[in-house]
C-alpha cells in the first residue's frame, strides 16, 4: 500500500451549503412540476410515499406541499389526493380579472411564468451608494423591465445584480425568464430575502410605461435577495398600479378581550 506524501498539502474542503430538507425537496418537486408534462388527472404520490422516498418525516413533506400549493403548482382534493395544477388555472387572478399581489410578492417565480417581460435597459453602472452598500458591490448590472399580463402592463421593475454575478447573465439568453431564475440556472440560488412594501407616486417615465397618470399612487416593493451564505445576489425594486391588484390573506384571532389581536395564517 502506498503512503500519503507528507509534503503534499491537502486542499481545504469547500464549506457545504446547508439548506432545510423541505427546501431541497421543494426545489426538486418544483422542477418536476414546471418542466415535465405531468398528467393533471393522476395524483402525485401520497405524503407517506413521498416521505419514504426522500427519507424525511411527513411534517417535512407537508410543509413542502404547502409551499407548492401557495405557488399554484399543485391542487389538493379532499379524499382524492394531490394533483399537478391545471395549466389553465390561474390562482393569481380573481373573477374580476385582478391579480392577487400576494402571489406577486411572495411567489415571484410562479407568478412571472404567466406573464411576459420586455427589457428596457441592460447596462453595467456605478451603483448608487445605497444599492452598492446593500449588494456589497460598487459596480452593478442594472436591468429595467416592463412586465405585462394579457397585454396589460402590471409592473415596472429595476433590478441590480452585483458585478461578481453579472457575467452569469446574457441579455439574449434571459428572454422572458425572471432574473432570479436566470441566476439560479447559473448556479446562484436565492435562499431568503428582506422585503419592504410601501407606496409612492408615479414619476413621468414609470407612468408612461404603466399607462397611468404621472403622480398616480403606485405600490412599490423592494426586495434584497441572499444566497445560503447570506451573500446578496439581487436587489429588486418593482412598481405596481394598485387598481390592477388586490392583496388577500386569511387571518386568525389570537386573543379574546377588549383589544382583539389577529395574525396571518401562513
UniProtKB/TrEMBL annotation:
Keywords: DNA-binding, Transcription, Transcription regulation. Residues 19-87 form the HTH gntR-type domain. It comes from the Bacteria. GO terms for molecular function: DNA binding; DNA-binding transcription factor activity. One of its GO terms (biological process) is negative regulation of DNA-templated transcription. PANTHER family: MANNOSYL-D-GLYCERATE TRANSPORT/METABOLISM SYSTEM REPRESSOR MNGR-RELATED (PTHR44846), MANNOSYL-D-GLYCERATE TRANSPORT_METABOLISM SYSTEM REPRESSOR MNGR-RELATED (PTHR44846:SF1). This is GntR family transcriptional regulator. The lineage of its organism: Bacteria, Pseudomonadati, Pseudomonadota, Alphaproteobacteria, Hyphomicrobiales.
